[in-house]
Amino acid sequence: MDATNGIEAALRTSEALQQGHFQLSSGRHSDQYIEKFNLLRQPVLTSQVCALIADRFRHQNVDVVAGPTTGGVILAFEVARQLGSLAAYAERSEVGDSKREFRRGTTFSHGARVLIVDDILTTGGSIRETLSALHEEGIEAIGVAVLVDRSDGAVDIGIPIDALLHMTVANWEPSDCPLCAAGEPLTKPGTTRIAGRSE
Question: How many CB atoms lie within 10 A of CB 11?
């Protein structure tokens, strides 16, 4: 299966790609949002898109597939399963929101070849935090793979990012958002709240 066609089909089938007025996790606003859990709630589709990632790294001797919470955990598990590798999960630190760490007894062997996987790339924050958590373990990632790069290649994290799909999606600071200026209700994905009212 062609990766771009495969992920586009999965997003359409799962109705993950949505139109509206959304506040992204970065705090910026957009008229499009990918509700990754509409896809991740469907194990067959999730397995299919993970196979697209696994196929790209099948011959790179990956020892561990690491993913940041929350969506990256599901993807890391399934990509690792398909590669016959271990999985590791970068969780939010109890110390601060901008820090992640590997807990619950997770250890890495010296020189382990680690692939990072995540769902939707917008600013690269969760991937940077995962890279930092690996660095604290003395590990350098051999690669990064994401389902969708919303920045269309604009994010630079210091190592190449392998995206199944590149998208250019308009987004704005709240103060510059034309949808806010037009009075469009704001949806904050991950909750059922809409600014000014609740569902």
Answer: 24
Strands (E), the chain: 17-23, 29-34, 64-68, 86-92, 100-102, 114-121, 141-149, 161-166, 171-172, 193-194, 197-198
Q: CA 72, 73, 79, 83 torsion: positive or negative?
A: positive
Round to whole Å and give the CA distance between 79 and 63: 11
**Do the Cβ atoms of 46 and 78 come closer than 8 Å?**
yes
Q: Are 167 and 6 in contact (CB under 8 A)?
A: no
pLDDT at 195 > cutoff 60: no
Q: Is there a cis peptide before residue 70, judged by omega within 30 degrees of 0?
A: yes
CATH number, domain with residue 72: 3.40.50.2020
What one-character-per-residue DSSP string does 87-99 give? EEEEEEPSS-TT-
Query: Does residue 110 have a pLDDT over 60?
Result: yes
**Predicted local distance difference test score (pLDDT) of residue 170:** 86
Inter-helix orientation angle 43-57/3-14, to 10°: 160
Count up the domains in the chain and report the number: 1
Q: State which amino acid sits at residue 8.
A: E
Is-contact 72 117, C-beta < 8 A?
yes
Q: What is the extent of the structural domain holding 21?
A: 3-198
Overall average pLDDT of the 109-132 stretch: 94
**Nearest alpha carbon to residue 185 among 175, 173, 197:** 197
